[in-house]
């Protein structure tokens, strides 16, 4: 059901100053707008100390294990486990990945019953049989830890994008919801129109059972095929997914030249890409704004200039009490940690903390500390503790 009111918040109303808008570039650029020049002046001094814990080569995602150790993916196809003592060890059995552009090894999450079944879920770009094609893939495997690292075994592919040309806009963020269903972000691979086609998985939020089968209560289940797997559509490049304490699903996605979005995801809803956007094409061609199509779901918050969002957690710890219930988003172009305040079904940027480096991933630690992964080669893993 469409919301009766929509709160669209531009970050320029909340921050004192911005850099110039991103320069135009072709929409097939290697890193989309995550390399755009967008920075902001922080509202307050950082309320934390950032301590380096380890370094990784092009890390993309992380998740904590029940014993306090940390799994970290690296884009070239490496899975590592960081011991409590701070030593990074390799997990073998990772499938081959299609590395390049925005492609490679992606997300890693634990099954809700990991403590008893040892299952982890991973996403990665997978090469197609035709040269130059690839698609996002989600699989699950049994994780066995050893004193020197560990291994994945019994790998089972649960879901695949079609193999298409290009190496950008995979999405492939994964999460388990309070309903214990498997949620997957499937970006539109810079193909535009498939985002509006329910017979294509591109530009969609996908919802599956933990074994990859399709829940019968999905909004388009009766249509069968790909449509049966779809929860929402009309998305661009979705790189952050999190459920709040009220079980509402929030997802952020990169806009084109301007117009990064934070969306509250509703059952069966159309979010408008590429029909509408708060940004424009890289060649300067305008895109109609969300206000021109009230029948399409508009973002709760949006950013121009872009922050290039990557990684997302809704904080629920006690170490940073002022952050409780807030969304924490990593900023690539903005080189910042961005805090978003929620108010029911609305959202707005509250603060921006400069980090001096592109931030790829955000996670909450077992004791409530916040952990960040920088982007790129020799990237730092940072632990944020309150001052």
Spatial extent as radius of gyration:
19 Å
**Share in β-strands:** 35-45%
Mean pLDDT: 91
Low-confidence stretches: 1-31, 36-43
Task: Return the structural class.
Answer: mainly beta
First-last Cα distance = 44 Å
SS element count, helices: 1
Biggest beta sheet attributes: 9 strands, mixed
Tally the beta strands. Answer: 25
Order of helices and strands: EEEEEEHEEEEEEEEEEEEEEEEEEE
Helicity range of the residues?
under 10%
Short note summarizing the structure:
The protein is built from 1 helix and 25 strands. With 387 residues, it is an all-beta fold.
Task: Identify the notable features of this structure and list them briefly.
single chain; 387 residues; mainly beta; nine-stranded mixed beta sheet; four-stranded antiparallel beta sheet; 1% helix; globular
């Amino acid at each position: 059901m469409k919301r009766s009111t929509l709160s669209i918040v531009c970050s320029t109303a909340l921050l004192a100053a911005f850099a110039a808008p991103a320069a135009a570039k072709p929409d097939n650029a290697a890193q989309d707008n995550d390399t755009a020049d967008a920075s902001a002046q922080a509202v307050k001094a950082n309320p934390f100390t950032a301590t380096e814990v380890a370094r990784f080569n092009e890390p993309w995602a992380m998740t904590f294990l029940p014993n306090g150790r940390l799994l970290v993916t690296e884009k070239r196809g490496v899975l590592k486990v960081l011991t409590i003592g701070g030593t990074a060890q390799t997990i073998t059995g990772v499938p081959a990945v299609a590395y390049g552009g925005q492609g490679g090894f992606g997300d890693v999450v634990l099954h809700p019953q990991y403590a008893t079944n040892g299952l982890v879920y991973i996403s990665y770009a997978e090469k197609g049989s035709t040269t130059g094609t690839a698609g996002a893939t989600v699989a699950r495997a049994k994780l066995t830890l050893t004193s020197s690292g560990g291994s994945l075994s019994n790998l089972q592919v649960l879901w695949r994008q079609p193999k298409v040309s290009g190496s950008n806009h995979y999405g492939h963020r994964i999460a388990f919801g309070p309903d214990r269903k498997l949620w997957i972000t499937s970006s539109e691979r810079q193909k535009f129109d498939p985002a509006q086609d329910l017979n294509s998985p591109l530009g969609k939020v996908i919802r599956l059972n933990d074994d990859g089968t399709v829940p019968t209560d999905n909004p388009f289940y009766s249509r069968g095929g790909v449509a049966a797997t779809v929860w929402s559509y009309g998305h661009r490049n979705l790189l952050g997914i999190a459920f709040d304490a009220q079980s509402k699903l929030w997802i952020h996605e990169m806009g084109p030249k301007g117009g990064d979005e934070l969306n509250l995801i509703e059952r069966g809803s159309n979010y408008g890409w590429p029909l509408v956007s708060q940004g424009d094409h890289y060649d300067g061609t305008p895109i109609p704004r969300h206000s021109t199509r009230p029948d399409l779901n508009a973002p709760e918050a949006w950013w121009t200039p872009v922050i290039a969002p990557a990684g997302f957690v809704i904080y629920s710890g006690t170490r940073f009490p002022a952050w409780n219930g807030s969304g924490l988003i990593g900023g690539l172009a903005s080189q910042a940690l961005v805090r978003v305040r929620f108010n029911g079904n609305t959202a707005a940027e509250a603060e921006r903390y400069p980090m001096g480096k592109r931030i790829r991933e955000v996670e909450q630690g077992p004791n409530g500390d916040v952990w960040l992964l920088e982007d790129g080669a020799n990237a730092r893993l940072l632990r944020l503790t309150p001052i």
